[in-house]
Design a protein that fits this description.
Elements (H helix, E strand, L loop, with lengths): L11 H15 L5 E4 L5 H10 L4 E4 L3 H9 L3 E2 L3 H7 L2 E4 L4 H9 L4 H4 L5 E4 L5 H13 L3 E4 L2 E2 L2 H5 L3 E6 L5 H8 L3 E8 L3 H29 L4 H9 L6 H4 L23 H17 L5 H18 L7 H9 L2
Helix pairs in contact: 10-13, 10-14, 10-15, 13-14
Bound molecules: nicotinamide-adenine-dinucleotide.
Nicotinamide-adenine-dinucleotide binds next to helix 5.
């Protein structure tokens, strides 16, 4: 029995899906559409180009388009035009309103999408909107999957991202073929929206862990401990976490992390506040208690209004240091 409740071999929808899968894999180097050439999207599109996929791209910023055009991508004016020319499209946009605009806006993908097109959204957005986009895409005969990422700009450049994929399992292989050119790990999570769910859960824990590490380090320093020594002790003890051993928020403790560079680069406080807002919405909708996630959301929001919006989220350490004198 198939998902359309027909005996599998007699369901025309399933047979259509199978032949689309086959034709996509046979034509593996046909053009791939890419929409959103920002900090993450630009290196991701470059990695697809490196793997021999012709790219048809668009972005609101002409400078971002020019950079990709110079290395061989074809640039067009709107998401709709990308959809006219490519039957596999990846979107990497800031947040939910941008995704709605790019998919359902007047010049959006869904106005021009071809039947059988595979749409992969790697932006971090509300899982409920991913589900809405999947329904809207299905109405046009296309398939939508959510595939948000963990790993920052460095991982995007080195094709070391981790993708968490939600959507129809039969389409996963076709998505995987492209995602493995941009990432080291590709994990199938379940139905559409579950990739976003996994991403939101990870970032909520990351935010809580970073605030915990920052306040712990600050307390230790005030108690007279050397920050490098305290870090060494935490990292050999049960307090160890990614924020203490890989991405320490205290300037001078580690090299090559944003705290060593005045919190420039990395993962912006605005984006972290956005992801925590998504966690808060989903928790409210499912009546799930997230006391520490909610508090983390408020802390990063306050930071955004106090000049930290464009700094890396580990600047919560600096924020706490500045708060203490008040
Ligand atoms: P970004 O702001 O650098 O890039 C987004 C791009 O989308 C911009 O170039 C913008 O011009 C373009 N865009 C917006 N609306 C558009 C439209 N209507 N049409 C065409 N282009 C449009 O953002 P980013 O840092 O690349 O992040 C993208 C997504 O990845 C976000 O959802 C973010 O949460 C997620 N993410 C980011 C990181 C990171 O370290 N930066 C890590 C993991 C996940």
């Amino acid at each position: 029995m198939c998902v359309h409740t027909h005996t599998f071999w007699h369901c025309s929808l399933c047979l259509d899906t199978m032949s689309l899968c086959l034709s996509r894999s046979m034509a593996s180097k046909t053009p791939v559409g890419f929409i959103g050439l920002g900090n993450m999207g630009s290196p991701m599109a470059k990695n697809l180009l490196k793997n021999g996929y012709p790219i048809i791209a668009t972005d609101l910023f002409p400078e971002s388009c020019k950079e990709l055009q110079d290395i061989g991508a074809q640039v067009v004016d709107s998401p709709g035009e990308v959809a006219e020319r490519a039957d596999r499209i990846i979107t990497m946009l800031p947040s939910t309103p941008n995704v709605l605009e790019v998919y359902t806006g007047p010049n959006g993908i869904l106005k021009k999408v071809k039947k059988g097109t595979l749409l992969i959204d790697s932006s971090t957005i509300d899982p409920a909107v991913s589900k809405e986009m999947a329904v809207a895409a299905e109405k046009m005969g296309a398939v939508f999957m959510d595939a948000p990422v963990t790993g920052g700009v460095g991982a995007a450049s080195l094709a070391k991202l981790s993708f968490m994929v939600g959507g129809v399992e039969e389409e996963y292989q076709a998505a995987q073929e492209l995602l493995t050119c941009m990432g080291a790990n590709v994990v199938y999570c379940g139905q559409v929206g579950t990739g976003q769910a996994a991403k939101i859960c990870n970032n909520m824990l990351l935010a809580i862990g970073m605030i915990g590490t920052a306040e712990t380090m600050n307390l230790g320093i005030r108690l007279g401990l050397d920050p490098k020594l305290l870090t060494k002790i935490l990292n050999m003890s049960s307090g160890r976490c990614w924020s203490s051993d890989t991405y320490n928020p205290v300037p001078g403790v580690m090299e090559g992390v944003p705290s060593a560079n005045n919190y420039q680069g990395g993962f912006g406080t605005t984006l972290m506040a956005k992801d925590l807002g998504l966690a808060q919405n989903t928790a409210t909708n499912t009546k799930t208690p997230i006391p520490l996630g909610s508090l983390a959301h408020q802390i990063f929001r306050v930071m955004c209004s106090r000049g930290y919006a464009n700094k890396d989220f580990s600047s919560v350490f600096q924020f706490l240091r500045e708060e203490e004198g008040q």
